[in-house]
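Hi V.,

Quick status before I head out on leave. The structure for the redesign project is tokenized and pasted below; the design run finished overnight.
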């Protein structure tokens, strides 16, 4: 008999603790209800701001690429033309000196002008192409300048210059156009990319990147405060979940199921918010966090309703 009384007393104690936890949860949630809704709204606002900044950044990068490419092509072509003409002329003179026994004055003169023309055209072509593409890439902080890039442009300038020089100047023009086009193209690309990397000349304004708005302090504040606000509720929900699973009445089973949903929702939300703490926030991450925080608020609201129903039934 005494064992039965002890079991009944134990059940009464567990029931009282269960009811106390339900009451405490309702009180805690009532104090924090506005905060949870406000947090979801703030994260949604941050997501919208990030989306707007991303769109503006794309437009800004496109404009920078166009302006940078135009300036790069202009300077690259100019440097390439000058360097190509000089290098082409000198190379043609050197080639004519080596072949002087096989050339007459007219052929030598034609070869010289062919070398100058081939070097100028080849240097211009490579300078415009390499300077324009390279400057456009550098304008959006994406560098493609490397050894292979410069060698390919040097070859492009040399091949173009060789063709032009050979047409107008024969062998001498071929030699002058080859070296002139290669050297001119390399000079045009190197000078242009050197200017943009240092932010000099027409690239001064292009290289001044706009200041990005940083939401990190606000974001960290949201994360820390959210965890502080949810911790007491999670503690009560854990106790409610454990106690309600031991009670076979239908009301308790509903509370157990809803408490499980709440704990899972809070866990997912905190995981996303913690991930935001260590990585640079993106539009998708902020949007996901806003949706999850909104989901947590809805689950807490359902839990409150289930708890109030159970308290009403058991108080009768």
């Amino acid at each position: 008999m005494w064992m039965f009384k002890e079991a009944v007393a134990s059940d009464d104690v567990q029931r009282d603790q269960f009811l106390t936890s339900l009451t405490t949860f309702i009180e805690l949630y009532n104090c924090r209800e506005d905060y949870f809704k406000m947090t979801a709204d703030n994260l949604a606002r941050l997501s919208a701001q990030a989306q707007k900044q991303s769109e503006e950044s794309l437009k800004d990068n496109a404009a920078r690429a166009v302006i940078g490419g135009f300036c790069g092509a202009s300077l690259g072509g100019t440097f390439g033309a000058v360097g190509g003409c000089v290098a082409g002329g000198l190379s043609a003179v050197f080639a004519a000196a080596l072949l002087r026994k096989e050339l007459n004055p007219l052929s030598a003169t034609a070869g010289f002008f062919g070398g100058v023309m081939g070097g100028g055209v080849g240097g211009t072509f490579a300078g415009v192409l390499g300077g324009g593409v390279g400057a456009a890439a550098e304008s959006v902080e994406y560098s493609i300048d490397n050894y292979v890039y410069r060698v390919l442009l040097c070859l492009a300038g040399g091949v173009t210059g060789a063709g032009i020089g050979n047409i107008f100047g024969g062998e001498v023009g071929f030699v002058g156009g080859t070296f002139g086009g290669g050297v001119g193209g390399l000079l045009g690309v190197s000078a242009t990319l050197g200017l943009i990397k240092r932010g000099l000349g027409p690239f001064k304004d292009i290289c001044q990147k706009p200041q990005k708005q940083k939401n990190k302090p606000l974001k960290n504040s949201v994360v820390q405060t959210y965890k502080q606000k949810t911790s007491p509720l999670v503690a009560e929900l854990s106790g409610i979940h454990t106690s309600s699973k031991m009670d076979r009445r239908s009301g308790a089973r509903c509370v157990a199921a809803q408490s499980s949903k709440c704990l899972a929702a809070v866990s997912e939300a905190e995981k996303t918010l913690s991930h935001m703490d260590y990585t640079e926030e993106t539009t998708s991450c902020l949007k996901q966090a806003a949706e999850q925080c909104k989901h947590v608020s809805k689950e807490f609201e359902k839990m409150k309703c289930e708890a109030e129903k159970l308290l009403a039934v058991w108080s009768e």
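Above is the designed sequence. The chain has six helices and no strands.

G. will cover questions while I'm gone.

Best,
W.
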